[in-house]
Amino acid sequence: MGNAIALDEKQTTEIADKLAQASNQVLELRIALTDRTPATPSAVLQDLKQYESHLDQMVSFFRAHGIYLINKGAQQALANVNTAIEQGRKTVADIEHTHAAIKAAAGLLDLAAALLSRNPLAIAEAANSLRT
Questions:
Q1: Pick from 33, 99, 22: which is nearest to 57 by CA?
Q2: Where are the domains of the chain?
Q3: Which residue, among 64, 62, 57, has the nearest Cα to 26 in the 3D structure?
Q4: With CB atoms 3.0 to 4.6 Å apart as the test, which of 9, 82, 96, 132 could cross-link to 69 if both were Cys?
Q5: Secondary structure class of 37 (helix, strand, coil)
């Protein structure tokens, strides 16, 4: 079929506001016509009242749609936050692994140096340090 028009929250709110203003103008016209002499036929007043009611229903629809869009945006923001937290957690885990790898490499260097020194106490200490 045709392309659907997607409205964002701001546009939906603007439409609801404009429809509310139109409904208010219909109400003002209906009141003005009620006070007129000669009297406006009741069928005209009834039609205006129906139009006002329909406009009010559309205002409610667009406000509800705006709330839905706000909620949808909030859910997307929450998903983005959760993704960022997960990425941060993975980064911290990688940093911890990197830190452990650096510490292990330093321990191996200490053990190699102790082996070169042929000092049994230094070798034992380096080996124990590497195990922890």
A1: 22
A2: 9-131
A3: 57
A4: 9
A5: coil
